[in-house]
Amino acid sequence: MRFKEVGLLFCQLLAVLIFAAGFFPQKKVLKGDAQFQYMAETQRALEPAFDKLVLVVIDALRADFLFQQNVSHFDFVHELLNRGEAWGFTAYSNPPTVTLPRLKGITTGSAPNFLDAILNVAEDDSSSNLKDQDSWISQFAKHGKKIHFFGDDTWLKLFPEEFFQKHDGTNSFFVSDFEEVDTNVTRHLPHELQHKDWDVLILHYLGLDHIGHKGGAASQFMPPKHREMDAVIRQIYDQVDNRTLLCVMGDHGMNDLGNHGGSSAGETSAGMVFISKMLSSYPRPAAQDGVSSPVTAAEDYQFFTRIQQVDFVPTIASLFNIPIPKNSLGVFVREFSSLLGQHATTKIIENYHQLMQLAAKKTAARGNDDIDSMLAEMKDVQATLARTATNYNYAMLFLGVGMLSIVTAATAYCYISSARLNEASVLMIAVTALLGSSVFGSSFVEEEHQIWWWIIIAVVGYSWATRPSCTPSHLVFLVCARLLRGWNNSGQKFMYDFTVAELLKSHPSIKWLLVCATLAVVALDGFTERPLLSIFNLLAGLLCFVYKTCWANVNGEVSPTYAQTLVTKACSLLFAGGTPWDDKQLLVPLARLFFKVTAAIVCMRIAYNVVFAKRKFLSELFPLFTIVLIMQTASQNIPLFLVFTIMRSSLRNILRVGYPQQRCEMFFVLSLILQNLSFFQFGGTNSIATIDLTNSYNGISENYNIYVVGLLMCIGNMAPAIYWSLAAVVDHQLYSKKSYAQQKLSSMFFYSVNSLLLLVACICMRYHLFIWSVFSPKLCYLLGWNILIHFLTETVLEPFLLMVAG
Amino acid sequence: MTTKKRPVGKKKFVSFSDDDALSRTGRLPKNLPQHGSPPVYVRRTWQTIPFHLIVLSYWFIKHSNGYDVRKCTWLLVPCQVLYLALQFNPATVYGNKILKLNYALLAVSGVTCILLTIPCMLLVVLFGAPFLEMLDKTWLLSLHCCVLSYPAVYSVLNSDFKVGFFKKYFISIAVGCWISCLAIPLDWDRPWQEWPIPLVVGAQLGAMFGYTFCSQL
Asked: How far is C-alpha A532 from the geometric centre of its chain's CA atoms?
């Protein structure tokens, strides 16, 4: 690569990184624990309204699951609501609506920031720990209360274990389990309710969320799960006295497909019910008066009184007479003021002081002020604070954008001035313009795969109409592309039940046959020309197959008997010693062996090429690279590489016959389109939720290196993109007259324009409702594409290979 | 006036129709590509503007209850036949002749259209329509497209399969469908975003454009 291109590339990466650093700052939090501020002595002497708290968090409990007729099967809760012993609310949960940020909101009362949503994925991360952040959990712990916790182990990740006298976490990793995650929690109940050696009992049930993810909000498993949860509530209600407050809440809701993370009405409307025998002696909330539960459907899941989920924090703190956590944005729920008697005003003023301190506003001395006007002012402050939860670093934002616009202008100038006017360059500019402008619409970002599909069918249609002589190749290509599109669901909007991947999962024998076929076809490519290399490839392919079946066995998937015999044979051969190995122990050495063997073959081939320069070097190594990519792909997606092989040969045929003058330029543009399309059709989206971690730990033992895992994860998620990028370079080396740097200008043009427009969109929409759920994840993906594909693959790996090829 | 001149002049030149140079200099618009000899083309005239499609689209978007594609297709059929008889066929020139409406061919091309729905549906699925789900709706869409292309199908059959010239009519319908797909991913959750309503409207707009302007291209 020439100096100019490399310089531009570095400046581009740097600009995006600077922007990201300014865009995702760590939020400022007030350190230390809260103390009573207003009339502290009096408050300390107050009697709490309740002695014990039972908090039942039911993951993804949308408001209508609790309250709505024909949807909800919480019959006991309805009965309590009608008796006035339960008060129902719809709690707005601030996006991102995933568990970890929501738990932060429920316990500390603060608005989440985007990093929390990413950290929700990174299981083993500890930086999201709330050890030093004030929360009602820590306040309870500091006041010598005993807390017992059972359920989702996210809580144990958030809080130091010494807060909980007793705990038992369940891992939420296997989403397909509806029963065991919940019985694991419920089995502790009889003992806990009998001994009552706790002040706070927290239960976090995951089953309902898992059902949603698997079958959507209207799944047939929902009613029995509702009844099961209802029975748990009845069990607790029956065995606690009237000095105990039972609170049932969802940490977030779900959309009708059962997913969550975004900011639609379904996802943000979580249900919340406070239950105590004592509540019936107080006036019930106005919205609940004279309403018989279950209630009829309400628009946007708005049932009863609407509160913010963070309002839970000051309410609990006031009812139990502990200081309100420092970072809480919550406003005391007015309905509960009757429970506090004459001290209600004191508590609300306390809440007012705490909130104003957080907002860094001067507080006028409020004494015997009107409660309503104070609550209204607090609501305003809450809204402002929630909106400005993150402080953008504007200097860095504008530095990033400014730098990138200069780089983009330079790149565009270089590209336009060097490009010939032909179909390839027009297509490239059109794709760039289309994708660049699409980032301003949140739905186009969410459904980006549709745009790529829209582009590819246009290209195929155009090419077919103008080059009718290549009709068979076009048809083959189109059929393959359609297969690719039908392989997985992508985006948020459309979920089809009959995707090829789902079908293969339910027919494992066909799946494994296809996997075998794929590996064989890929490995034996070019057998007649170079049989020796093909045999090496076959060896690597065999190892890959053995590893994949072994992995399937360990993870409880079905694999055919011939594969299992193969595994046993191969392992007795490879790891001699006679003792039968457990499949689980085999995984790590097998994967390592695979990587070692491939590395050895690559090194051999490079060494060979250094001595005898062979022009076909790249195309000969291509099958081996493909096998490595297959290794990092989920088994139901592996047959797609067979589809890719067919697609690639028909594409080469079309380009050879139809576009002899611009063969390589066209391949580069199409490679870019196919990279993106296949990335999305492998199941990827622009949302953090679909990052696949399953192949990140191939060959990684327990004391692992985070960078290796990160690299494997990136390769695993970007495998199809790497495939198409390499495919373009193979053809470039064989047929192009241009230098690689010149060729590369086109994709540099695409990346820099695309990045620039996304950064501008992020700045324009920084107060948009979807900034955290749509635009920020997209920015992360852009960084990923820039670094992994644009930089590591296309600027480091490929020029290196081309250099070796000579 | 010109319309009357051409049939008159045609009789003199019909024996020379093999001679490209003569027929080109004589009657054809200068930059028109030749499709077979004798050439088949559609005259450039406002006569081919499909007014019925404008009305139908308006009705479909504004006044049809719940975007009833079935009903729209039923309404479209007689409109298209009338359009072909009164507007499109009189404007189509076959080897310098304007042919009278052939009633048998009218029926044949109707059957052809219905048969064409199957390959059309296959193409629609290949180009990304859901497979196995909502096949009935996809079929309805392809039926609608085929009815929209009915005048062009008739003319192709009438001109001994000179697809060359009429290709652009089919393409314009396809492009209309393609552009309308942009409405699908939007998260507005409107009833008209349901499959295949945007594509039906797109096909109508494409056909509208095609029948109006393709003779100019």
From this structure: 43
